[in-house]
Amino acid sequence: MCEGILVQEADLSAFRAKLGSEVEQALPDKKVIRKEDTTYRIISKSVTEYQFIVPFDLPDEERVEVGQIFSIKDHDEARGRRLTFLARVLDIQHGSNYEGNWDTTMKGTQFFDKEQIFNRVFAEPLGCVNCDGSFRRSRTIPTKFSKVSRAERSEFKFLKQVMGDIEIGYLRNGSRLVEEIPVALHSDTIDHHMGVFATTGMGKSNFMKVFAASCMRLAARGESKFGLLIVDPHGEYLKGKGSIKGLMHLKRYRDGLACYSTDQKNSKDPYVEELAISKGEVRPEDVALLYEWSPPQREALDAISRIFEAGNWLEEIQSPDGLERMMQEKFKDSTVNVLVRRIKNILEKNKYIQGRSSLANMLANLQSGKVVLVDIPRMSDRSELFLLSVISRYIMEEYKKDEREGRKNCLITIEEAQRVLGAGSNTSRFETIAREGRKFGVGLCAITQQPKLIDKQLLSQFNTLVIMGLGDRNDRIQLEESAKQDLSTLDIEIQTLEKGEAIVSTLNIPFPVPARIHRFEDYLRRLEKDDANEALISRGGFRPFLE
Amino acid sequence: MKIVHLADSHLGFSSYSRLDQHGQNRIEEMIYSGFDQAIEKIIQLRPDAVVHAGDVFHHVRPKIKPLVIFQRGLFRLAEMGIPVIIISGNHDAPKSYSITGPFRLFEGLRGVHIAQRYKYERFEVGDYNFHCIPFCLEPRDYLTEFERIERSSRDVLVMHGLVESLRSRKMRSVGEHELKDSLLKSDFDYIALGHFHGQTPICANAWYSGSVEYFNFGEAADRKGMLLVDLEKGTVESVQVRPKYMIDCPAVDCSGLSSEEISECLMELCHDYEIRDKMIRINLTNVNRAAYRSIDQGKINRLGAAALYFKIKLQFNDEAERSERPVDRHKLHEEFSNFLRGEASQKRIPKAILDEVVAYGSELMKKAVQSRNIEAFDASQ
Q1: Does residue A538 lie within any of the structural domains?
Q2: Which residues of B touch A354 (CB under 8 A)?
Q3: Are A504 and A447 in a shared domain?
Q4: Which of A362, A533, A536 best tests the B interface by mutation, with the highest count of B CBs <10 A?
């Protein structure tokens, strides 16, 4: 009996094996995707958007975040496919295999079917990397079901080749740092103007200090390609405040910094020059910035340069003879008296206007590629504009003259730039620099919280943008509409940027790069501690081949 | 308190090889006599102190005569009870710690305060502190030494070097140390500067006294002399030691002039400028070469014999317009770096080692140039 049963079972398995092969042969030639292969694979959609799904209940360290960069390995040696696509997450949505709301329908006390729900990830293609490591924009789509994985450090190596010489931070993949890939701007593109956009507290000042520190490093090593002018109305860049450090703390590269200050305390330092502007360097149009003028007063201001000598008008107009000459030109004495009174006020308030001038030194330092810091704490908004106007006019006039051999370009920083670059502002000087500066090697670095107030045409001249979180939708729209690179898809990421995080869009770097700006104090420590080449010099690590 | 500020005496300087009847260089002797006159003028002014802001001697190892002249001057001032504050300048400071400078001879003299050891020294004279920063070996040392200054309410700063803001007015000479404008603090009662030979205010409280003498024709338009400074009132008065004796005549266009006419022109100029005991340069342009050659050269020599120095600078009409060769102002290490980067761009240097070679090589070059420049100061003996 037992034997008989055994025989029957053996026959059955043979039958099953025969049946199986016949059934398999009978099935159509069709690839069946197993359940575990459905996530992290490209499932749609086009050249401009990739989609893939991920489990809906990932642990924290595996969560997908907006801004993260994923790599799509479209590799099949046999079929000659070796491309790696890179894509940045733009959005993540709950999804399911059901139409409507089936995925959240209750079944008893349970959700209906956990197996059928997932998160759908929308990603923007950045480009693709060849097998030889070169990067280009992608004009095709990855093969369907190509594997998607979080991009590894090695896959960002191509970025190192396109980065510039002014380091500002590290590459960021979502909220994770990729420390091996520094984000660095290009000195060569600086005269194309630059914009730094962020709401208060997002780290603008920190960014500027990091940027300036990198420039100081280049200048001290004789490798700088432009001079950087920073006028600091908050008095925070020079020596910092409390535990926050300033540029003076970067002792190693102090040769790359020239400081001027109106603050008695700061200017006691032998490295800080007392700021001085000579009376001859102030023009009526600078004074015009300081007050609201009635039409006759403005007319009188405009006439000054015709009536008096350029270098001496501030003195002459205050003399009885000056008043007489103005009246001879048919201006009322009351109008001229207002002018004179206001001029006296200006001279009284701005003690740095005297016989000596720091401008020639400032210019020489800029032209030799140094960072020039003008520290003007506690100065009123208008006085600051007045000073900035005098300095930038002088610089622009000097740069318009014949180029001296070895002269470096210049980048003028303007804080709260919406005041002078806004539509309808009466400070055409800065607009002129924005429009014409590049011809003469002068660029603007506009820092503002409200890009929406900046003239759209001017904004479109800015080729380097550092965006550090903008809550206002109108600000973002303004930037998206004028940026050289397409920022429209980054709307969500810009909204969700945290303090110190930035999107950097610049020429030479093929797509807007997510970055974590260095914390100045940490960067300072790093620069003071080790600089590969210089460390090599000090310990004599490199020896010429002949030795 | 009143002080006399002078600088750049350059005792021992000789030039132009004109000798007097005793075979002594006339310019050198003129400088000694000028120094004597300056001392006598100081005594007449009766200041409370004298500040010499560097370059008393022209050389680090002066001959005996300039030492004697200087010693005589010091003794005269000491006799009259006038304290003297002196700093060493780039000419008379040794460029190495191992060399003994000339000022060691005058140390310990009563009323004579000398800062000469490459470091800051403070001397209290009258109610004032004189903060002296002499010639330093490294440009950065001026800032470091300045940091050592402890301020009182009455402070005078004494330094020697070319301040940054004069950069455009004077071609920098090799190895010259630049004083940062950031050192010119407005709260010093006075800043006495030496090195620039023209009498010049730099800002309200900082002056170059200028030298008493002329050392080349580039200085012909400079104001010369000393300064009398009233530290309480904040006034600065120029004191002339002797009349102007250097004349760089404006160019005379000699187009179409014959040899007789050129000769006549020269005679007139010499007469107009009263050239006896003066240093004079006559500038003639568009001169016909043949016409000039036919002028009796002996006559020209006799014409200039009375002058302390006589030179005719000629520009002939057949000289092609000199096309100015652009001066390459790159520093050596920049040139080196640019060259290597150029080579690397053409793949003649492997990129992997480029940064290291540039960094190490540039650093070596900076050091070599600096050390060469410092040695160059001592080379003019």
Answers
A1: no
A2: 203-204
A3: yes
A4: A533
Q: Which has more confidence, B126 or A18?
A: B126
Q: Inter-chain contact B182–A269, Cβ cutoff 8 Å? A: yes
A530, part of any domain: no
- B180 in reach of chain A (CB within 8 A): yes
Number of domains in chain A: 4
Residue B200 CB neighbours (<10 A): 17
Same domain, A88 and A232: no
Q: Are residues A243 and A286 in the same domain?
A: no
**At A530, is the pLDDT very low, low, confident or very high (cuts 50, 70, 90)?**
low
Indicate the range of A96-110, A342-356, B88-102 predicted with least confidence: A96-110
Measured between CA atoms, the residue of chain B closest to residue A224 is B334
- Regarding whether A128 and A39 lie in a shared domain, the answer is yes
Are residues A271 and A403 part of one domain? yes
Q: Containing domain of residue A485, as a range?
A: 166-172+179-275+358-524
Cβ atoms of B363 and A220 closer than 8 Å = no
Distance of CA B188 to the CA centre of its chain: 24
SS3 call for A314: helix
- Burial class from Cβ neighbours inside 10 Å (0-12, 13-18, 19+) for residue B34 reads buried
Which DSSP letter does residue B319 get? S
Report the pLDDT value the prediction gives residue A140, as an integer from 0 to 100. 85
Contact at CB, B337 and A537, closer than 8 angstroms: no
One-letter amino acid at A123 equals: A
- The confidence score (pLDDT) of residue B223 equals 93
| Residue range B214-239: mean pLDDT, rounded | 93
A480 touches chain B (CB under 8 A): no
Tokens of B88: 């060493």
Q: In percent, how much of chain B has pLDDT > 70?
A: 92
Distance from CA of A385 to the nearest CA of B (A): 24
The structure tokens 């330093």 sit at B136
**Residue B138 in contact with partner chain A when CB distance is under 8 A:** no
Whether residue A531 lies inside any domain: the answer is no
Whether residue A22 is predicted with pLDDT greater than 70 in this model: the reply is no
Contact A181, A159 (CB under 8 A): yes
Closest CA to A129 of A97, A106, A152, A103: A152
What is d(CA A135, CA A86) in angstroms, rounded to the nearest whole number?
10
CATH topology of domain B2-239: Purple Acid Phosphatase; chain A, domain 2 (3.60.21)
Rounded to whole angstroms, how far apart are CA atoms B261 and B254?
9
Tally of residues, chain A: 547
Confidence of residue A77 (pLDDT cuts 50, 70, 90): confident
Q: What is the pLDDT of residue B174?
A: 44
Provide the 3-class DSSP secondary structure of residue A88.
strand
Residue of A nearest to B336 (CA): A222
A273 part of contact set with chain B, CB < 8 Å: yes
Average pLDDT, chain B: 87
A149 and A259, same domain (yes or no): no
CATH number for the domain that contains residue A376:
3.40.50.300
Question: H or E element: which one contains A205?
Answer: helix A204-220
Is residue A184 within 8 Å of residue A165, measured between CB atoms? yes
Residues A219 and A194 in one domain: yes
Sign of the alpha-carbon dihedral angle for B124, B125, B129, B132: negative
Count of beta carbons in the 10 Å neighbourhood of residue A380? 13
Helix runs in A442-472, H state only: 456-459
Determine, for residues A270 and B180 on separate chains, whether the beta-carbon distance falls below 8 Å: yes
Same domain, A202 and A151: no
Handedness of CA A468, A471, A476, A479 (dihedral sign): negative
A135 vs B16, higher pLDDT: A135
Q: Are the CB atoms for A218 and A226 separated by under 8 Å?
A: no
Residues for chain B: how many in total?
381
In a domain, residue A533? The reply is no
> What are the φ/ψ torsions at residue B8 (nearest 5 degrees)?
55, 55
Please choose, from the candidates A377, A357, A228, the residue with its C-alpha nearest in 3D space to the C-alpha of residue B184. Answer: A357
